[in-house]
Amino acid sequence: MLSRHVADKLQNYETPFYLYDIDLLRRTLESVVYESAKHNYKVHYAIKANYDDHILGIIREYGLGIDCASGNEVRKALEMGFDPKGIVYAGVGKRDKELRYAIAQKILAINCESLEELFLVDELSKEAGCKTDVALRINPDIDPKTNHCIDTGQADSKFGISYEEVLERVSDIQALENINIIGLHLHIGSQIRELHVFENMCEKVNVIVANLDSLGFNLRFVDVGGGLGINYDVPENEPIPNFASLFSIVNQYLSVGDREVHFEFGRSIVGECGELITKVLFNKTTATGRRLVIVDASMTELVRPAMYGSYHNIENITSQEELRSKYTVVGTACESTDVFDENVSLRKTKRGDLLTIKSAGAYGMSMASRYNLHDLPSAVYSDEI
Length: 385
Ligand code: LLP
Fold this sequence. Notes:
Helices cover 30% and strands 23% of the residues. It is an alpha/beta fold. The chain has two domains: 23-271, TIM Barrel (Alpha-Beta Barrel); 272-384, Lyase, Ornithine Decarboxylase, Chain A, domain 1 (Beta Barrel), CATH 2.40.37.10. The strands form two sheets. Strands 1, 11, 12, 13, 14, 15, 16 and 17 form an eight-stranded mixed sheet that branches. Helix 3 runs parallel beside helix 11 (243-253) and helix 6 (96-105) crosses helix 7 (115-128). The longest helix has 18 residues, at 22-39. It is elongated. The two termini are 15 Å apart. The mean pLDDT is 96. Ligand LLP is lined by residues 46, 49, 67, 90, 150, 152, 187, 190-191, 225-228, 264-268, 304, 362-363.
């Protein structure tokens, strides 16, 4: 972990802040580019995971496309200089003005998640006097064996169009004159550590693609989404996720002819390169004997533990004490669920110590809020300290 090595320097910055290990980010990008090139796979970065300018600038250097979930994310990607033809835009509820904007930008594909949306894109494209490239986001009905809060591809989920509905309405879909259906898209969930679920996904995709083929669809690419998990338990053991394993499963099980295969990784690209650095404000013990460490970060900087019960490894990076104790680490927000973790074994911790909350590069800063009128956290980059 970077913070342990630069703890002295970190004392000069106002806490809480995100610390980004740019060298690790670059090594992660090198790995995903190298491994994907072996199979000629195309990788998009899911910008929702972290849209920090410095990070996006580096990701752009490696030639990745961008996966967006809102009109503003599409705008951000374009402003940061990403090629429109490398941008895909998914989302169950796109507003008319977002669709009009995306249509005008001529991005790679708008990934439609309902038939009503598909018909609307057709209508708005006609209005704009153009033909729009779209992909069908189909719900594959797969259990990704992850936290239920972040699965997206089960039959009852709000994401994607049901495959049955597509089959029922084939003629209506094919009658649309102002769209080109060029891709199939799916995303089964996030933080997937049991990689065999991707085998099931591939087998479903094979059937869907073969059926759509025989019905006369002309798909140019298959986008199998993101979801590769990271090691929150012991991040030091696996700072760079195992892209090679996932690609080799997809290479072995996916059978879609010579179509392009796309991925959309968020967490696996930026998750491990970010830490949330926070200062201990107070120590106290509850009447029940629970030893609390109150830090100056909270769920407003990193909401994942409060929102999904997610685990992040925590370490005291400035204490020199040999002795360890068990603590409950809580934040400053006026919410009882504002707890980073319980029973954390830390070196004896006192007011003023710095703690790192690890693996916070993805869905940390991008989900920060101003509840309690907290300031948004700042960022410190390893290549600038
Ligand atoms: N593609 C689509 C269509 C998605 O919805 C997502 C994430 C991704 C790609 C990127 O997935 P990743 O590679 O990062 O797993 N806030 C939650 C995660 C929400 C994920 C939403 N969709 C968390 O903090 O765990």
